[in-house]
Design the sequence.
């Protein structure tokens, strides 16, 4: 094997290593993006839970208000 062939072989192997490292960098970036999205989803999930609780409280208040109003109307009709 000549010196020129050896250099070509080394350059080829270095190119393969570089390509693998680039793939690893892409995976690292993807991992970081997934982590950020996971954090955002957790925040969204918390917000949805708060909205659900708020909705349930407002719904219960509405039912109670309607019940009080209905009893008031019924009391007026009975007197």
Sequence:
């Amino acid at each position: 094997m000549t010196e020129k062939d050896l250099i070509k072989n080394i350059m080829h192997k270095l190119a393969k290593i570089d390509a693998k490292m680039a793939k690893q960098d892409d995976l690292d970036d993807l991992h970081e993006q997934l982590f950020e999205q996971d954090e955002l989803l957790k925040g969204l999930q918390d917000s949805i839970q708060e909205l659900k609780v708020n909705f349930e409280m407002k719904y219960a208040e509405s039912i109670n208000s309607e019940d009080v109003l209905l009893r008031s109307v019924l009391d007026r009709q009975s007197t």
Observations:
- Helices lie at 3-78.
- The chain has a mean pLDDT of 90.
- The chain is about 95% helix and 0% strand.
- The radius of gyration is 34 Å.
